[in-house]
Amino acid sequence: MASSVERLCFGQKYILAPMVRVGTLPMRLLALDYGAHIVYCEELIDIKMAQCKRVVNDVLETVDFIAPDERVMFRTCRKEKDRVVFQMGTADPDRALAVAKLIENDVAAVDVNMGCPKEYSTKGGMGSALLSDPEKIEAILSTLVNGISKPVTCKIRILQTLEDTVNLVKRIERTGVAAIAVHGRMKEERPRHPVHCDYIQAVAESVSIPVIANGGSLDSVKTFDDIEKFRVATGASSVMLARAAMWNPSIFRQQGALSVETVMDEYIKYAVRYDNNPFNTKYCLCQMLRDRVESPFGKQLHAAQTVAEICEVFGMPEYYSKTTAELEARRSSLQVNSDQPLSPKLEDDIITMAIRFERRDYPPQITPKMYLLEWSRREKLNQPLYETKQRTQDRAFQSTVIVADKKYRSTLWEKSKKSAEQAAAIVCLRTLGLPEGRVGEENSGLVNKRKRDDKQCAALDDKESVVRKRHITEPPLQKEGEMIRMTKVVNGACGQTTH
Ligand SMILES: Cc1cc2nc3c(=O)[nH]c(=O)nc-3n(C[C@H](O)[C@H](O)[C@H](O)COP(=O)(O)O)c2cc1C
Asked: Relative to the CA of 372, which of 138, 290, 295, 336 has its CA 20 to 30 Å away?
């Protein structure tokens, strides 16, 4: 679908290079804030991206591409929409196109990585393996150029000879790509080896599309002014920085770089605001600390396991509390103000709703789980069975409850296992049209009836089972934990099977 936004141009630009693990949303936004004109995301592999679902995240105001295991593979937002280039790893034109179509309307351009020399890339025919297969390069790039409305670029390494390099880029130009980024090292060379400015210059002279010079971080580019010097030395139209920007993204700042301490604080703010994976956040901060990563401060950072703990290490707990409270409030108001009534959906064999458990909506000592348990007992069903999983990126929880052989789950992830179970219980109760114990619902009869049921149950109980009897005759609905313990005993006494 054609976009109304102007097509991204690659001439005269300073660019954040694609970097695995580094080029996630906080780093990209920070680089843009400091003056980068264009930002590339980390390389994302086509096979993984093809499995992702596009999800609009109203709370964060982002678009997320979520893998089947719930990992956020790519998160982007309006602020970068016209300047973010999606880089993919691919060796297959059709798959590349499928992924490009999936993300096309959320990014400014699509790039193909043809420079990565790492085995995980090359063994699948991706990255620098493509450099020795120009037919494949042509097939991938022309399929993308013809198949999507956004500009397509690629990033290569130089070949053994100047002549081969120039011949390859001329073939690439004929596919219709909008620009070509040239990392001035051969695939056998390591990042510490000097960059071949003469090769980049020869490429720049041989094609008419913008050439983006890359590879100057170690020896050429230390300051903002060096970026332009590197561009002139290579005769390129634009410059792309990886390591120099990873160590301090404020290198893009015309007025001069800021201290790494300031930059790290700004990075953390974006990481909290956009709910960035804590391990990814830590990784990027460690890159900025560089040789200080082994210092006592670096060790403290290393020990942090959550974004809250990272904020603690950096003396930013107030920022964390304030921002997460704002996000939470937005989440709640979106739920309350949603035009869409929360209706259950069937996903695979699970009934889902986007529901969050809000403790304040329930009177003290009353929870949806209690109500669900009460109802199940009354209906002589098995005790509700909760299965909870925790995802790695933010340690959030999601529960599924099984009631009468049907599964219920909230699509929203909770901070604690307890809340996740309560949310699953609410989904079940609302789907079945049952009261859930919210403030104002106390007179639904379910909970009061429970007391009577317990007494009946106790009367039928085996008189030898003193312990069980003691639990049964205890006043019900104390605390959640007690409730569960008690119910298990009651179920046993009444002959109901538990899972
Ligand atoms: C941490 C890190 C991750 C990288 N990941 C990618 C990547 O995902 N895609 C890619 O094309 N190049 C990747 N590169 C290579 C850089 O984009 C760049 O070509 C190289 O570092 C040379 O540029 P520099 O001298 O500015 O660092 C990565 C480099 C680093 C340091």
From this structure: 336
- Whole-angstrom Cα distance, residue 220 to residue 218? 6
**Catalytic residue from among 41, 52, 77, 116:** 116
Pairing of the two strands 152-158 and 109-114: parallel
Q: Is the pLDDT of residue 478 over 50?
A: no
351-490: CATH architecture: 2-Layer Sandwich (3.30)
Q: What confidence tens digit (pLDDT) does each residue in 94-122 have?
A: 999 999 999 999 999 999 999 989 888 88
- Residue 348: pLDDT band (50, 70, 90) is confident
User: So what's the pLDDT on residue 243?
Assistant: 98
* Separation of alpha carbons 37 and 301, rounded Å: 31
**Closest Cα to atom 11, ligand 1: which residue?**
113
Nearest CA to ligand 1 atom 3: 19
User: Do 14-258 and 351-490 come out as alike in CATH topology?
Assistant: no
Domain boundaries, the chain: 14-258, 272-340, 351-490
Ligand 1 binding residues, C-beta < 6 A: 17-20, 22, 42-43, 87, 113, 115-116, 155, 183, 191, 214-218, 241-244, 246
| Amino acid residing at 97 | L
pLDDT at 498: 26
What amino acid occupies position 21?
R
Residue among 14, 16, 19, 39 to mutate when testing ligand 1 (max atoms within 8 A of CB): 19
Annotated catalytic, 286? no
Q: Which mutation among 187, 243, 246, 248 tests ligand 1's pocket best, with the greatest number of atoms within 8 A of CB?
A: 243
Phi, then psi, of 103 in degrees rounded to 5? -105, -5
Alpha-carbon span 191 to 217, nearest angstrom: 9
Asked: is 14-258 a CATH 3.40.50.360 domain? The reply is no
